Amino acid sequence: MFYKDERLALFIDGSNLYAAAKTLGFDIDYKLLRQEFMRRGKLLRAFYYTALLENDEYSPIRPLVDWLNYNGFTMVTKPAKEYTDSMGRRKVKGNMDIELAVDAMELAPHVDHIVIFSGDGDFRPLVESLQRQGVRISVVSTIRSQPPMISDDLRRQADNFIELEDLRDVIGRPPREPAGGDGGNR
Fold first, then answer.
1. Interatomic CA distance for residues 4 and 40, integer angstroms
2. What is the pLDDT, as a whole number, of residue 179?
3. Three-state DSSP state, 159
4. Which helix (H) or strand (E) holds 11?
5. Which residues form the NYN domain (predicted)?
6. What is the torsion angle, in degrees rounded to the nearest 10, for the CA atoms of residue 124, residue 77, residue 141 and residue 135?
7. Which DSSP string do the residues of 117-148 spell out, in sequence order?
């Protein structure tokens, strides 16, 4: 459902895509992901949204954010907010939905097709609005997890649903050898 001459933009909800891929048991190779969508159309932008814990000495996502930034992705980050819930548990909040929605609305006049990597039902009104502006919308998530990681409303609203599991062979990183293994050498 892609046309070679259409102008494409990718909007990646980082935490949502990470959770969906993890549930399916694979890691995403973002270089391959970008190449795949460059092959499908004229890729104008690839946005990646994530919240970062600014006060941590080391954030496990920092190397990925830096790599994406240097390799053709437009990074949209903001500081995550830490709080303690009513049970005394440390929680982190870093929702990027508004930033993604605003950027998608601003870019809509310049693209033919937007691919949203998220199953978050909060994006349904955004998809509906983008469609009214003449933009085709594909949503990438999974229904193969229990429970499904994509909201039924979002899936129905999108022009096209792409099952993340079906992209595994195209954008998945090969599994790493278990630590301490001999890598198959005997």
1. 6
2. 54
3. coil
4. strand 7-13
5. 7-165
6. 50
7. E---GGGHHHHHHHHHTT-EEEEEE-SSSSS-
Q: Which of 33, 2, 37, 19 is nearest to 172 (CA)?
A: 33
Q: How far apart are CA 50 and CA 59, in angstroms?
A: 12
pLDDT (0 to 100) of residue 84: 84
For residue 92, the surrounding DSSP H or E stretch is strand 90-93
Count CB neighbours of 27 within 10 A: 14
Helix (H) or strand (E) holding 19: helix 14-24
- Residues in the chain with pLDDT values less than 70: 55-58, 175-186
Cα 145 to Cα 149: distance, rounded to the nearest angstrom: 7
Within 8 A by CB and 6+ apart from 101, the residues are 123, 126
**What are the backbone dihedrals phi and psi of residue 144, each rounded to the nearest 5 degrees, phi first?**
-90, 5
0.85 surpassed by pTM: yes
At 180 the pLDDT is 52
